[in-house]
Amino acid sequence: MTRLAEKLLRIFRIGRQVETQAPPRGRAPCIHVILLDGTLSTLAPGCETNIGLIYKLLKSAPSSARLSLYYEAGVQWHMWRDTPAVAMGRGINRQIRRAYGWLATRYRPGDRIFFFGYSRGAYAVRSLAGVIDQVGLLRSDCATERNVQLAYRYYQREPGSPGETVFHKRFCHDRVEIEMIGAFDTVKALGVRLPVLWTWTEPQHEFHNHHLSPVVKAGFHALARDETRAAFDPVLWDSLAGDWKGRLEQVWFRGAHGDVGGQLAGFAAARPLANIPLVWMSEKAEACGLPLPEGWRARFPTDPQAPSIGTTRGWGKAFVLRAKRKVGRDPSESVHPTAVAVRARPGRWHVPALRLSRRT
Fold first, then answer.
1. What is the mean pLDDT of residues 177-201?
2. How far apart are CA 106 and CA 306, in angstroms?
3. Of 43, 142, 199, 355, which sits with the fewest C-beta atoms within 10 Å of its C-beta?
4. How far apart are CA 298 and CA 294, in angstroms?
5. How far apart are CA 161 and CA 20, in angstroms?
6. pLDDT over 90 for what percent of the chain?
7. Is residue 355 part of a domain?
8. Strand order in the sheet with 67-72
9. How many CA atoms lie within 13 A of 303 on its CB side?
């Protein structure tokens, strides 16, 4: 990691796990992968989310893959005094700035970029793509702390302003493309994600980008069919917005939010179910040109009939506001075959007539 990148991480970091991996020396084109995890995530063995598992999978790739990796865990809520920082949104905003600054110090024309995120982290990588689309990606020689802050301010408060245009021309690459965004059950969880409190912290974060940016070539979204907590209402991409011409797949899987994201709170029996969206996403990434280790699928056995972690474990019981998720609102949606083959009890769930996702 460059000294500038280390400085940016120290400035913005607020006590969460950040890991990076640089490619071998030499400046041949490389692949930059940013992975932003969900709240209370960890890389502890056996406790990784699907984002953590993708990160570890990529770390095991041969050096010839020339991967440059950035992983950051989600907000870590250690005690009640941490609540104000989460409520004010400093967690996700700083997370986006850190990732942006890291990428800006490393990217060179000819490199390729992949983003992955789960839950709140998925919203963060989608917003990060929005910053790059709207403001641009700073050139490495211009990626100072001040410019990172300015780029984010333009994105947050002054979109489309004359100052933003001047900033882009003076400091940013002409155009940067993102090969794909892989999102696991995006939720607009930008405030306090606790019962009742989430309703008054949510409006403070309306500026974040909700749509696929023109700089993104492909978007893949794994969604939890059986999640019911209103606080975890999914934020889907709108395929009808603008004139975007890329590839978009939003696929519903059996399970709750934690199942699709692989955040299982020690309930190992649900891992084969969580591996289904993990394998699906990894195959999509591989098809987009992300090099994965040979024989990687064998690491993630799947079982569509494995038990689900559900929505009532731990804090889950305290979420009173609940509703079934609406499936089929966007033409890009489909239902994975494993979610159709294994239904909930009669009367508890209805799958509308949607095209099926090809099983991969």
1. 73
2. 41
3. 355
4. 10
5. 34
6. 63
7. no
8. 18-21, 67-72, 31-36, 112-118, 180-184, 218-224, 247-253, 333-335
9. 10
300 three-class SS: coil
Q: Which domain holds residue 280?
A: 3-341
Determine how β-strand 67-72 pairs with β-strand 18-21. Answer: antiparallel
Over range 45-56, report the average pLDDT.
97
By CB atoms closer than 10 A (0-12, 13-18, 19+), residue 255 is buried
pTM for this predicted structure: 0.87
Distance CA 348, CA 283 (A): 31
- Tokens at 81, concatenated: 């005094």
26 with 63: CB under 8 angstroms? no
Cβ-contact 257, 311 below 8 angstroms: yes
Q: Is the pLDDT of residue 11 over 50?
A: no
DSSP string, 23-59: PPSS-S--EEEEEE--TT---STT---HHHHHHHHHH
pLDDT score for 124:
93
The DSSP output letter for 172 is B
* Average pLDDT taken over every residue of the chain: 85
DSSP 13: -
Q: Total domain count for the chain?
A: 1
Q: Is residue 283 part of a domain?
A: yes
Predicted confidence at residue 87, as pLDDT, reads 41
Question: In CATH, what number is assigned to the domain containing residue 257?
Answer: 3.40.50
Alpha-carbon span 360 to 276, nearest angstrom: 9
Asked whether the predicted pLDDT for residue 230 surpasses 70, the reply is: yes
Is residue 141 assigned to a domain? Answer: yes
Q: Classify residue 359: in a domain, yes or no.
A: no
Question: Where do we find the tokens 């519903």?
Answer: 252
